[in-house]
Amino acid sequence: MEKERSSKADGLVLVIIMSTILIILGLVLYINPEFEFSIFIRILASLMVIYGIVEMAYYWAKGEYTNIHSYRFAIGLIVGTLGVYIMVKASQFNSMVVPMTGALLLVVAVVMLQYALQIRMLQGKAFAVSMVLAAVVYLISLFAFLDPGDVFENNLKVLYVLTTLSGVLGLISMLLTVVRIKNYEKPQVL
């Protein structure tokens, strides 16, 4: 039960962090389009390295190496290594604002989709709303990632507004999930 709660909390924290990052990124870039994107990339890469180290330390500290189903060490190593790579190559990402933003949106959209499916499994009434929110963010992420016809490249303000909106939708999705989990875990009175 404790491990189940820990993984739920990890996922909820991930959505809060990613959604907050999207809101901040969208607002900062909307207010100051000349903002050096590589600064944001370095901050994000630093968080990835820290996350990787924490995951690997947790793996060893909690003895998860005895659990064949635990992938914390592998995930920590991959995320930490990617963080170091991104930190070193951050200046090269300035020209990739649109696809990088799309990639961040995609991560949030996938987690939102997972939460929508969990709400469905918990027989929550908010399933349809959560699914629509996830679908909206997923579509925004695909358009940003693929950027057909350089729509966003030619109008970055639209991307920044949609990035902020996606962050807000991520927080709403997380809130719907938390409410459903809390209601589901309440003792049933007969």
Largest sheet composition: none
Residues in helix, %: over 70%
The parts where pLDDT drops under 50 for at least 5 residues are none
What assembly state would you assign to the polypeptide chains in this entry? single chain
Q: In sequence order, what are the helices and strands, one letter per element? A: HHHHHHH
SS field, number of helical segments = 7
Instruction: Give the overall silhouette.
Output: flat
Rg for CA atoms? 18 Å
Global structural class: mainly alpha
Write down how many β-strands occur, each being a DSSP E stretch of 2 or more residues: 0
**Averaging pLDDT over every residue, what do you get?**
81
- Could you give the distance between the termini? 24 Å
Strand content: under 5%
